[in-house]
Write a structure and sequence with these properties.
Elements: E1 3-10, E2 15-17, E3 35-37, E4 48-56, E5 64-78, E6 82-86, H1 92-97, E7 103-105, E8 110-117, E9 122-127, E10 137-145
Parallel strand pairs: 3-5
Antiparallel strand pairs: 1-2, 1-4, 5-6, 5-10, 6-9, 7-8, 7-10, 8-9
């Protein structure tokens, strides 16, 4: 079953579904894999603009939506195929955590972290070629994203229902 939806954007950043409810939205590409890429495409379009129309394929809480992040650092000292990189991490534990992940640069060199240096996030890295001083070292990350749940823990007390036995008389009003 598919529901036809209309999505409107307001200048304050709120989104409105025209199918009867509003929600915190996550948009993703539909693919045949079990992981789907998060889409960032909504802009402030004015007071009340129609953004898109489409179909809601399914509401699947087990759908995995992936957000792509890139951490960047700068070479501090450059040797033949080694470089000291800083400003990517700021503590030793993060360097050790991301040690198995492959690094790349904007000038198309590949590398990996060999060891952390000190306690402030500096690290020794080995690359397939010599880096240039203006190069940037990048680390690609993929993070699972879930919708923000708006839950109000305060549940008001139910109002007791009492049947009113009195008849309320309706006063006649002259219409002019």
């Amino acid at each position: 079953m598919s529901i036809h939806i209309f999505i409107y954007n307001f200048s304050c950043g709120n989104i409105l579904f025209s199918c009867g409810y509003s929600a915190s939205l996550l948009y993703s590409q539909h693919s045949s894999a079990d992981k789907h890429k998060l889409e960032h495409f909504l802009q402030n379009n004015g007071m009340h603009d129609l953004i898109t129309t489409g179909f809601l394929l399914s509401v699947d809480p087990d759908r995995i939506i992936i957000k792509w992040l890139v951490l960047s650092g700068h070479p501090f000292k450059i040797f033949n195929k080694m470089a000291v990189v800083w400003y990517m991490f700021f503590n030793r534990e993060d360097v050790l955590w991301f040690k198995p992940v492959e690094l790349r640069t904007k000038w198309d060199h590949r590398g990996h972290i060999t060891e952390p240096l000190g306690t402030h996030g500096h690290m020794n890295c080995h690359f397939d070629g010599q880096l240039k001083s203006q190069d940037t070292v990048l680390l690609n990350l993929y993070k699972c994203v879930s919708p923000k749940w708006t839950y109000d823990p305060h549940v008001p007390e139910p109002v007791p229902w009492v049947r009113n036995e009195q008849q309320i008389s309706v006063q006649e009003v002259e219409m002019e």
